[in-house]
Amino acid sequence: MALERSALEAAGKRYRDEGISRRVRGIAVSAIKEIPLLAQKVPGCVSLGQGISSFPTPEHIVDAVCRHLRESVWTGKYTLGPGLPALRRAFADMLVRERGLWVDPDTEICITVGAMEGLCATVLTLIEPGDEVLLPSPNYASHIEQVLLAEGIPVFFPLKPATWQLDLDALGHAISPRTKAIIICHPHNPTGAVFSKEDLLVVAQWALEHGFYIICDETYDFLTYDGKPYWSLLSMPELRRQVIGVFSFSKKYAMTGWRVGAVVAPADILDHVMKVHDAAAICAPTPSQVAALAALEGPQECVAHFRKTFQARRDRVCSFLDRMAPHLSYVKPQGAYYVMVKFPPQAGDSMTVALRLLHEARVITIPGSAFGPGGEGHVRLSFGSTEAELDEAMERLARWFEKNTA
Ligand SMILES: Cc1ncc(COP(=O)(O)O)c(C=O)c1O
């Protein structure tokens, strides 16, 4: 069964079981998407829910797609499965430029329908029924569902609640002879943690000793604050045979709706990922691939602008939260655009609190339980929205928590 309590079921939706596969009965639409679905029926909501950036897609990207659609008939047709050759080359060039990472654009990169399809194809490629997959807790909800879809077993190891850094003792104990992979995402959704290189090197050591795969979800690789350096296990040549990187254009270029991402993997693994990609998607949408190419080849100032603005929004939300102490507490995010907010136990469980916040305060938040057992007692706030929306939502939260937890 799905691990989280479904927001839709809590609100009265009943799922049919008869004739539905065990695999699919056992997963849930993540609460990150369920709560906004419920919110459609609640007028006047402000969203701190799904991680959608308020920025429009930069103009040069939109212009390139419009031009290609008008001038070239192939923009409306399928591409080759792994994606436009020019896009794969540009992506490989970016990896050299930004990461010092050399990959073969012909055999080691597949352009996917967002990071999400890349993650799903990778998990389905590597995980057999009964394989154990190590996941930090809390962790991005969809990683959990992808493991369950592959009939793998999510094995949670808690992050340290005081910092949300990796708890290496707990991780060490979670490794077993059935461990097939670990999924590491940082900057981390939902906590905003950026894991220390020292700790990641220990994970690398264990992966080498025990022979498990490392799936790196690089969705927020560009988004660290206060000049904090970002380092990924993808950069370790010793791990080259067992590390798979999954990238996204969604947040870096304000392209969440274009649905384009990439998988970077050793050629003999990517060959198999490609089979799942072909069965599920054929190829990423061609106009979106054109957009991704324009994003990589165009000016990069937008990325720096997004980073600077999100840092200011983080500070804005944190100063609101500081004023809400002692009702609420949090760990200041070092990256991504989320903060986990801990509320007092008398408010109820996190699903109850998120549903009450939706209906009574008219603020969309995500219940911490959606992110695995370590998320209970928290709600996740996204600070992707505009300053005006953040201010309104935070005022509403302050009033609600004061009334309900004093
Ligand atoms: C950690 C993480 N991975 C993957 C995704 C999905 O990214 P994409 O839009 O590229 O599918 C998200 C989206 O919020 C995310 O937070």
TrEMBL record:
Q: Which SUPFAM superfamilies match?
A: PLP-dependent transferases
> Which Gene3D superfamilies does the entry mention?
Aspartate Aminotransferase, domain 1, Type I PLP-dependent aspartate aminotransferase-like (Major domain)
Q: Name one GO molecular function term.
A: pyridoxal phosphate binding
For biological process, the GO terms are: amino acid metabolic process
Signal peptide region: none
Q: Which Pfam families match?
A: Aminotran_1_2 (PF00155)
Q: What is its EC number?
A: 2.6.1.-
Keyword annotations: Aminotransferase, Pyridoxal phosphate, Transferase
The record ties this protein, via PROSITE patterns, to: AA_TRANSFER_CLASS_1
Q: Which cofactor does it need?
A: pyridoxal 5'-phosphate
Domain Aminotransferase class I/classII large, first and last residues per copy: 45-397
Which family, according to the similarity comment?
Answer: Belongs to the class-I pyridoxal-phosphate-dependent aminotransferase family.
Q: What is this protein called?
A: Aminotransferase
